[in-house]
Amino acid sequence: MMDVAAYLVFFLCLALIYGIACLGLNLQWGFAGLFNVGVVGFFVVGAYAVAILTTPPHPSYAGGFDLPVPVGLLAAMAAAGLIALVVGLPTLRLREDYLAIATFGIAVTLQLVALNWESLTGGTHGRVSVPRPLASVLVDRVEANLFFLGMTLAIVGVAYWALERMVRSPWGRVLRAIREDETAASSLGKNAFACRLQAFVIGAMLMGLSGGLYASFIGFVSPDDALPTLTFQLWVMLIVGGSGNNKGALIGAVAVWGLWSGSGWFMASILPSEWGARAGALQVVLIGLVLAAVLLARPRGLIGEETVVSRGAQVP
Amino acid sequence: MTLILWLQAILDGAVIGATISLGAIGITLTYAILRFANFAHGEFITWGGYAALAALGTVAGWRDVSAWLGGPIAPFSFGLPLIAATIFAIVIAVALALILDAIYFSRLRRAKIAIAAVIGSFGAALVLRNLVVMGYGADPEYFSRDIQIAFRFWPGLRITPDQIALIAVTAALVVSLHLFLTHTQLGRAMRAVRENPDLASVSGIDVASVIRATWVIGASLAAIGGVLIGLTIQLRPSIGFDLLLPLFSAAILGGIGSIYGAVLGGLVIGITESLAVLVIGPEYRQAIAFLVLFLILLVRPQGILGAKA
Hints:
The complex is a heterodimer.
Chain A: H1 2-31, H2 39-54, H3 69-91, H4 96-116, H5 118-121, H6 141-168, H7 170-180, H8 182-187, H9 192-218, H10 228-241, H11 246-270, H12 276-297
Helix pairs in contact in A: 1-6, 1-9, 1-10, 1-11, 2-3, 2-4, 2-9, 3-9, 7-9, 10-11, 10-12, 11-12
Chain B: H1 2-34, H2 41-61, H3 63-69, H4 80-110, H5 114-136, E1 151-153, E2 157-159, H6 161-183, H7 185-195, H8 197-202, H9 207-232, H10 239-254, H11 259-280, H12 285-299
Antiparallel strand pairs in B: 1-2
Helix pairs in contact in B: 1-6, 1-7, 1-9, 1-10, 1-11, 2-4, 2-5, 2-9, 2-10, 4-5, 4-9, 6-7, 6-9, 7-9, 10-11, 10-12, 11-12
């Protein structure tokens, strides 16, 4: 029984960490209509930022400043935001698919950087011994996980509250107006490019935060964390949950991560162990079929976008 | 000596660029006619390559047919079996494209959210690639393990007969495609839909057959590209996915919708990658295509041969 509870805590930590990235993707896609196919790039930049800043000094790698984890998390957000700014500036004025291709490219490039810039990233071995906050106080594994869950819940809560405020503000309304009809919004004097760029950068910062939390929670980060499968999983989470709805993003994250972990466990228990790589492949195929089914049968997701009415507006 | 090194890199880049072109033509046609960035296009390359591999395995196992088709035709490393296998690869890739369109992409396009087709294709790409992993495992495969002796010519450059065949096949395909688009009824219809789908539709053009033709051409060229990669390099389940960035870069660099643009873009990307490997080493090879793409989007987003929107 304790085992199940301990696993549940571990599971929820990861699901909520992905939930933060999913909230970021929801701001970009669900509200601003920006198509990011390189979510994992922003995620992994945050993960490495935390790893490089918070680990103890290492003889052969740069960084290792032993900084507190919260400082690392802030840096993770800044790094991911900065990359989003660089990618967004030339591409957000162009056709929407160009952003998709450019973000796909930045994710591939960052994966190569993670693999090859050994003095900074540790190469294929990655950076290990990334600390958790208050690691010296919380020695017990279960207590440490419980504390991390509480902290992640608090961060999710703050992010959720802030995003709900933002999308219900005039800025959020402009964002949706641009998504629906850019020409109309522009003709009313709204700066579509600036609003898009803001949404893109803020969304990317949440992805960086998610990556940073992940590195701290798991304790290490390697180029395997930069694979496009994660981008795909996050998209499935958002689409299953319902894009354009922050609750949907979180519910989708928990549901799809549950499906993913469950199918992995199920396949490991029924398939012979020499299937290794093939079982992993089958898992991706299954999740892909879930995405296809949801896209075709219920494109609005479990809970679709809700009608948002401004505070103080008269509802007939 | 160094000059020869550079010239050799340009030559090798052109060979890779030719295969990139074959994929980029499909990308650019899908983008211009069906109006979405198809992330699953790379998988037609992978599936084509592996379908040929499967066919070769069957033919080689079936001794009489194999003997009848004969061994390699000198100086190439391949013979009639590979040509037969290529036809099988084209059939498989075309069938895959048409089935995907019928049960999946056509419905996503009808949903009127252009991007649903894009994320749908991204998902389809991962599924298709992992199906190959399930069937063949992740290790590289080869059509033939024989080492080919390269021709040497002035001033010490090397090229293998297979590579020459690759360039010749690509050139022949590009010219035939150009003639098809300019001289046949269906080709003209495709260009009309590319320019203005609504106008084409009210002019009595059968848009459904144009869509089918687009998939057939794109998937066929991709399958041939997959076979050529298997012939000159090796097959891995990730070849198509790894090529996506060069393919998109080539299509955008050349100008979306332009066949010759895609070929030009493919050659530029291939040669740039090859030269960059000399300067900064092979580690960042894949990022080169992204860098070229980024610069193009900054300076001339409509591409070299594209009309200004």
